[in-house]
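Q: Here's a chain of 242 amino acids. Please give me its 3D structure as C-alpha cells.
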Amino acid sequence: MEFTEATWVVGARRLTAAAGTIVGNRYPANFDVLHLDAARTLAVVADGMGDGPGSTAAGRTAVETFVSGSANGSGPAALRAVVAEVQRAVHDAGRGIASLTGCTLTAFVGDPDGSAWLVQLGDSRAYRLRDGVLELLTSDHTAAWLGILNGWYAADSREAYRDRHRLTRYAGHPGMPEPDLLNVSLRPGDRFLLCTDGVSDQIHDRRLADALTERTPVTELLAETLDNGGDDNATAVIIQVG
C-alpha cells in the first residue's frame, strides 16, 4: 500500500488530506494513479482502462499533464483547457500501443476565493459528508448511469451490470469530451472522499458515510476493500476541512 499526506490552506480554511492506493487481489500491478500535492491544494485520482500498456500510459500521462497544466489557474476556463491538453496528451501516448489507451480522471483543485473545484471524467467518484449527510457530487460517465437515471432499466438488472463499465467519457476518448466541473464551498467539518471504483464498487455508500463520520483512516478504508474481495485496484483520498 502506498500512503501520503498533505496540509493546505484555502482562504481561511485549513485542509488536511490523506491518500493511499493498493493493488488488490485481481491484477498483478496497480493501474490506478494517485497524486496528492504537497505545495498546493490539489488531489488527482485516475483509473486506467484495462490492464495493458495503454492503461498504464493513459493514467500516468493524464495525471502528469493535469498536475502540470493546472498550475496555470483554477477557474472553469483554465480547467477545461487543461483537460483538453490531457486529452491530446493521452491520444499522443496511445500512438503505437495496440491496447486501449484511456483512463478516468477525478480531481480536487483549490481556488484562491476559498472554494474548490471538482473535475470529473469517467466513473471514479467524489463524495462529500456535510452535517451527517453523504452526497455523491459527481456523476458516473457510464452507459449504466444513463440507463438507470433515464429509467431504461432497473439498477439491479442484468443490463445495468453489463453497462456499469461502459464509459461514455474518459481521458483518451476519440471524441475528446469535456469534463464535468463543480465548484464547492468549504465549510468547517466537511469531509471529501475521492476514489476509484475499486473503492466504490467494493464498499457500500452507507459504509462510506459511516467511515467518514467516524474518521476512519484511509489505510483502513483501503484494507476494507481487500476484506470485501479486493476485485480491483483501489485508490482513495480523504480531505477534511478545519
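Q: Can you summarize the key feature?
A: Residues 76-93 form the longest helix (18 residues).
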